[in-house]
Amino acid sequence: MNQEMKCIDVDVHNDLKSPQELLPYLPEPWRSRVASSGLGFPGHGYWSPVGVVRKDCIPPSGGPSASDPDYLVKDLVEQFNMDKVILTGNLTNSSTIHDPDYAAVLVSAYNDHIVADWLPKHESFRGSITIAPQDPSLAVREIDRLADHPAMVQVLMGSAQRAGLGQRQFHPIYEAAERHGLPIAIHPGGEGAAGMPAPTPAGYPTRYLEWHTCLSQNYMAHLTSLVCEGVFEKFPKLKFVMLEGGIAWLPHLMWRLDKNYKALRSSVPWLKRLPSEYIRDHCMFSTQPIEEPDDPKQLISIFDMIDAEKILMFSSDYPHWDNDMPTEILKRLSSEARQKIFYDNAKALYRI
Question: Which of 128, 118, 130 is nearest to 149 (CA)?
Fold first, then answer.
């Protein structure tokens, strides 16, 4: 990537210095709960030998990686000439919390923290309205509360869910997002944790390597659900963003959906077009984690199959251990393709 080219990073995981940062935004009795016990997220139970975040991203002032706005600007935004970064935080696993009232209060406090303590720190920062979809009415209330904030540019929730995201209990959330002109983004967070379904169709894997590799299976299931349940027919202006789910599986899914639709269309009579057409028109995908075949030409072939120049957006996934920097990936693409993936597509989607 040309260092002079502008870049928008659509997946940057800013973090809390500690749960105490949320206390000013929490009402009782939730404030006392977090003060005494922390956030209380159930873990997925898979140990990573490299951890989750890069150790060299720890700010000089201390605290977790990416918890200092000033250092994040220096270490990411300025170093890589980023015009904007979309803050996705670390609360997408709120969908794994059993108590829907606590989950809703927690994400609301977190959103207030982003608005007050992050967005004013630098002109490059844009925020996400994190929601907990356990109670869709509470999620809609949170969207309505913050949708008019000019720097909150999308609705964000975890891909760990108890049902396919196309199902009707989620539709009030999509109606609210469409009404406000906001895309919906999903991001991994807690697959297999607590009472969530197994993270793979084959059940629970044994190791983090397996769990991490199989995350894309969850995205295949959600995308199939969104298309087949008619979400994009019902909400024709809605855009969906698939963060950190990979992309190499997409040709297979579109081909298989189109083939099966031709024989089984009577089971989804609300669909008026091929499934692949809905995906191309309504879905965007982030680059990280970019698949890296031994022969780079094979990845270019996949890009051609999915019209990557139109549906792909750059993401670093900073500061996670497997993050990708804009100077290190997609070097073989044309300058026009890089311009679209690294900047133009996100600019248009987020109305920057």
Answer: 128
